Each structure stands twice: as structure tokens, then as C-alpha cells.
Amino acid sequence: MKTDKIFYTLFQAFPDLLFQLLGQPSELAQNYQFQSIEIKELAFRLDGVFLPDDNSPEQPIYFLEVQFQKDPNFYWRFFTEIILYLNQYKPHRQWQAIVLWGKPSFDVELPLAYELFQSRLQQIYLDSLPQTSSSLALGIIQLLFTPETNAPAQTQALVSQTRQQISDVNLQQDIIELIEKVITYKFPQKSRQELEQMFTLTDWQQTRFYQDAKKEGEEIGKQIGEQRGEQKAKLETVPLLLKLGLTPEQIALELKLDLEQIQAAIANQNH
Q1: Which residue in 26, 82, 202, 254 has the most C-beta neighbors within 10 A?
Q2: pLDDT per position as a tens digit, 132-141
């Protein structure tokens, strides 16, 4: 589970989150549309762009990137994407670059060639967000950094907060699923059953996320089963091919199987 997908969904559900992070009035979100935009020339894609509407000419464009790993070329790529966007769309307004770093140690030095953009750049370190905020969106971000011992209680609190604050049933379900996606990203080594027990999410199995994951698992299992069945059928022809005078190497080539599999089948036949 990549964090950029989590944050894209998060900003779609809570467009005012950006302005909470910037310490600006949440009402500004009403003047913006959040999009993921592809730069056609080199097929670059910006994580997110907050585009102000025509009624807000004084508001800047916000270019947003989420980064959860250290990349020495990050700023080179990010500002290149921004410049290509400006060249392609030629907007008549100011712009601001926002980077949401997972933690300060991921941040890298701004290249000397781009230091003139320093005033247009703002870095936010997500692991250092204040814990006192009552914002549901900020709480979901903080769940990414919550210690495992505290994560179940915080998850239940976020689910309860979602049900209390979000009246739209479909949006409420989307937010709960987003919380569950954060959990699966945070604990990739745990199975769905372990997560269900750990977080006691009573409607876990009813979510689209769970159903999609289950369906994907069943399809993979079916494919594996079909492959094993096909492989078994091929191995049953090995004795006949040996009688026809083919060598193990020729049989492996003919059946498109590993030589070790053919040799094992011959050994089993001899036993």
C-alpha cells in the first residue's frame, strides 16, 4: 500500500486538510479543486494540485507532494514537474510548493540551482503534527505514526468520530475504509484476520476494501490452482515421453518446465 494513494484519497475526502496543515482558514478549500495532473511532455504526474477557481484570482496554486522515503533527486524532479506544468498551462497566478515529508530525516537538501524557489517552498513533517487537534483528517494522518500499542484505541476513536461527524452514509463508509487502508499500510506483516481481531472492526468484512482484497486473493488462489493442475497434467506425461526416447532435458524443454521438476518426476516414478 503506497502512501500517495492514501493521501490522494484523504485530500479528496478532506480538501480543507491542506489549509489545516498550512495553518490557514479551512474555508479557503471552498475556492479550490484538488486534482492529480499529468504533465504530458515527459508523462510526469504530480501527486496533487490545488487549483483555485476563477472567483479567487488572489489565491495561489498549491503543488503538493507526499514523500515517505529519502530520495536525493526529489527536489530536482518536483520543481521540474512544476516548471513543466507552468509552461504547459500558463496560469496567471502565483504558486506554492508543499512537501509533506513523513519525517525530517527523509528531507534532502534543496539543490543550489533551485534556491531561488526557497520562498515558494514549504515543508511539513507529518510525524511532528500536534496531537491536540480534533480534526478527523489530521487524526488519520497521525494514525500512521501511532505506536502499535496505541493504534487499536486510536483506530476505534477515529471510526467513532467518523460516524458522529460524517452524516453522508457513503462518505462515512469511504472514510472508514480509508482508516482501514492506513492500518494495512501500517501493519503489512499482519493478515486480515489478525487485523480484524486487533482492531475489532465489526464491519471490516463488509467494506469494499476487504471485499476487493478477498476477491483478489481468491483470483490469485484460482490462478495458482489452475497452474498447479496444468503442471500436474504435464508431469503425468513424463513416463510416456521417456519411453519415446526423449532425454530429461528435451522433456523439460518440450513441457516448458524446470529440469529439476522433470528429474523429480522421474525419481518418483522409479520409486
Answers
A1: 82
A2: 668 899 999 9
